[in-house]
Design a protein that fits this description.
It is found in: Cell membrane. This is Multiple sugar transport system permease protein. Its main location: membrane. With 289 residues, this protein is mainly alpha-helical. The protein has two domains: 29 residues; 180 residues, MetI-like fold. The chain has 13 helices and two strands; from the N terminus they run αββαααααααααααα. The chain has a two-stranded antiparallel ribbon with strand order 1-2. β1 and β2 form a beta hairpin. The longest helix is centred in the first third of the chain and has 34 residues. The protein is globular.
Amino acid sequence: MVRKETAWGYFFIAPMMIGFAVFMLYPFVYSFYLSLTSSDGIVAPKFIGFDNYAKLLKDTTFLRSLRVTLYFTLVTVPVGAALSLLAAMLLNIKMRFVTWYRTAFFLPVITSMVAIATVWKWLYNTDYGLINSIFAALGLYEPPWLASAKWALPSIMIMSIWKGIGFNMVIFLAGLQGISPSLYESAKIDGAGAFRRFTNITFPLLRHTTVFVVIMSIISSFQVFDQVYVMTQGGPAKSTSVVVYYIYQNAFQFFQQGYASAMAYVLFAIIFIVTLLQTRLAKNKDVDG
């Protein structure tokens, strides 16, 4: 009887396991093999060992793309998390139409990144874009936005933060609603103001929520691609050329799929290490606390 139930269990999970093996495990293993070869996707791959990884250390374009990605991450993750927490706290207050406000904040999350990037590209247009039109009417400075190497990356950052606020807001909102109102009532009785209630109650009790939001945001920011591809294609002057876009160029424009696979594995290692360190630090704080 037990063997029969076990067999039926394997039967029902077989479609999922087959899908995982075909679409996840096999590409993962095969891409690592490609990273050890010189492959253009047409002729048979030629095994070259770790030459692709050694080449990465001397590739100034890759190193610059990595710096751009790190800069993008260091700005968008803390700013996005802070704004998401602020939005969650404001929308955690009982007021009319709060459900509609929450929905409005979340709508960008479920909207295609390509569609949003296309709209923002129009908004940023220096000739007829809505943003500069408003600035001109107010007599303010009109930034060149996507046309300038100085402004292009900040422009993408602004759009990316705006799109990601809704998702992180929902996570923070769930955490806030899990905090007992009695803690705030006791703090008010003791004379604690709004700032002290936030620093002594809200923020400490949202530690695990914050760690989750930061980890997910870092993973997402390291994988930024769609908005760069649609809005700037790495320009101007490679100022927005992030790692994933450079991987795309090597794989599908320069036809260096072995080299692109090596870059992908380096990016995977960076994300894995950063995530592991954050998780360890969070656990250590829990133990110390």
